[in-house]
Amino acid sequence: MAENAMTETPEQMHARLCGVIGRAQFSVLDDAYAWQPIAHASALSDNALAAVRDGASWAALLPANAEAAGAYRIFAFHFAEGSNASGFVAWLASLMKAEAGTGAMVVCGYDARATDALWRTSLGLFDYWGCPWAKGDAVIALVQRLRDAGSRR
């Protein structure tokens, strides 16, 4: 993560992060997902994207019906080695709120590529993002506009 990120202007940060999103591997999952309770971690399905524990209660992010309460549109970013992704989550979440009228759900996972350069880029993580299913098209369109702007840099 660059030390100069703290001295960036908002415009410089936006330009840098447009470049980061433009170079990132971006994928959108076809199915809706929702957090569903599970008995314990050993009950985790192969279809789960993630599992979390709150005290003694476990939940898994599992495929769901798009009309189900709490259904999310899921997309993921794997950052390019050597990019400076510091501030990415707050930046994209704020744009989602301002431009698509929705918040974000973010689950960080271990990037299987596991290189030293990825550690410097994103602490070795990748992000699963979610937004309410009904806002998915607007959010994906926003991400694509940002990616297009970043790829022109």
- Major sheet description: 4 strands, antiparallel
Name the average pLDDT: 88
Q: Globular, elongated, flat, extended or rod-shaped: what is the shape?
A: globular
Q: How far is the N terminus from the C terminus?
A: 20 Å
Beta-strand percent range:
25-35%
- How helix-rich are the residues, as a percent range? 25-40%
Q: In sequence order, what are the helices and strands, one letter per element?
A: HEEEEEHEHEH
State the secondary-structure class: alpha+beta
**How are the strands ordered across the major sheet?**
1-5-7-6
Low-confidence stretches: none
Task: Count every beta strand, where a strand is a DSSP E run of 2 or more residues.
Answer: 7
What gyration radius follows from the Cα positions, in whole Å? 16 Å
Helical run tally: 4
